[in-house]
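User: Quick sanity check before I run a bigger batch. Here is a single chain. Can you write out its predicted 3D structure?
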Amino acid sequence: MLTGIALLLQSCAVPVPPTGGPADTTPPTLTASEPVSGSVRVDTDHLVFQFSEPIDGTSFLPAFSITPEMSGPVEVGGSSRRVVVRLPEKLRAETTYRVVLDVALRDQRRVPLGAPITLAFSTGAEMDRSRLGGRMVHAHDGSAAAGVDVLAFASSDSTTLSERPLFRTQTDREGHFLLEYLPSQSFFVVGLGDTNGNRQIDDGEKIAVPPLEWVQADTTGAVVQTPWVLTDIDRSSPRVERIRAVTEDELEIRFSERLRLFLDDNMPSDHVLSLTNEGGKDLPVRALWFSEDQPRRILALAEGLTPGSWNLSGSLAVSDSSGNSVGAFQEAFDIPEGLPASELVDVLRWTPDSLDTPGGGTETVRTVWPMENPGVRLTRPFDDLAISFSDTSGAPLPWTAVQEDATWHTWRPPEDYGAPYIVTARLPDQDSTYSLRLQSASPRQMGALGVYVNPGPHGDATIKAYLQGPDIGGRPVASARLQEDVILFERLPTGLKGRAVVFVDQDMDDRWSPGSLVPYVPPEAVRWHVFNERVRARWDTMASDTLSFDPITMQDRHE
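Assistant: Done. Predicted structure follows.
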């Protein structure tokens, strides 16, 4: 690990950006170096870097790396334009050294490099000149992943990949990377969002598993055409962090991370829980519920809680956003004296939130689209909620609501009922009434978005897709599968725009898998398409391009 000691850089120990004039957006450039990149038979104890403009001296050392690594820290001195790096050891014989200045380097106006700078020299008569390249993109939308570390290992067999990578570079602003001056051999190439800057793969950092296990470096500069996909690879299950009583019949169960809970989804029911106090008294847990705005907790209804020591154990059928389920747990907690009384039940929200449609109010008619499941979510479990339906004249409609879970009640009007209707929810014990006017969308208001797909070697059954709405981090708007070379998202609201994420669902779990480093499992192939046109009523809007899932290929890089 490079843990160099930075000496004072003359005239730039405390860089202060000059004031006045137009904003500087031009990155610094390397105008000269000693030794010159490509030099052979080099025998020196220092390196010199000459820049086009004064640099921020504090940014140099974090951006600097050399391979093979030195046995101790380097010393940095010089000036703001001419930086001198003194090496802590004698250079090895017959060895190619590779120096990288990454995009952490910036000028005194804090403009960073647009792409990493790589130079190399050899202590022998020859030097390694093989290369390999590729591109890094973000998993959620396929956009360029800039400034991401690219690590080349000699082996993928380590149980932790804790050894230092042999070579390193970074991606440029378009997500492209090129590892240069390599020996002619195969490498295990990993993308890393190195948030702590230690140049090692640590828990919690974003990772891009290589699309193929080995990439061969050669003098043509082969470029892998399938991108590396950078994402959070979460293999750990949510843990119960704390249990506390919030009222005389309500427990809060808090978790170590966010759970995948949406108010428009029902709370799973296959939980196994045991609640016991120190005297051996058992209390049934009658219901579980949640609130989407506090995604690290769920609430449990347990009538008859008393002060003292308690234990909650069992398992919960909830998971995090990566699909990792909560495992079996056992948690002790204390209930204090003087718990507050139970809160009165109330309406938390009508569900779902509208998609580009007006909502709320008893006079506004809100359109309900086919992918939406209309309902009402309460703040607490309540078995006696009365839901009735009528037309706008007040005549009753013979529909029935369904209680999906302890706090969510839904209904589904007949498909042939296209007129506005009124839904009324009553809380009898409180004499509270809530009303909303709704109308199911008609076929004349809906359209479709589609994209052509070449499945390559994959069968139609494994090509699946989901459509992201304006909130990319939220739940998908719609899902579909490949049929006759077309992914078609149907019955969408007029005016909706979206982004299709199309992937090869090899494990058939209906979600994209980022793969695994150890043991190596390649990521599922994924493609993206942004629909620039909005949904048109009674129209299938098809993308002009075709998304191809051809086998991974290499392409020679010509410069």
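The chain has four domains: 1-17+26-127, 240-335, 347-441, 445-548.

User: Great, the batch can go ahead then.
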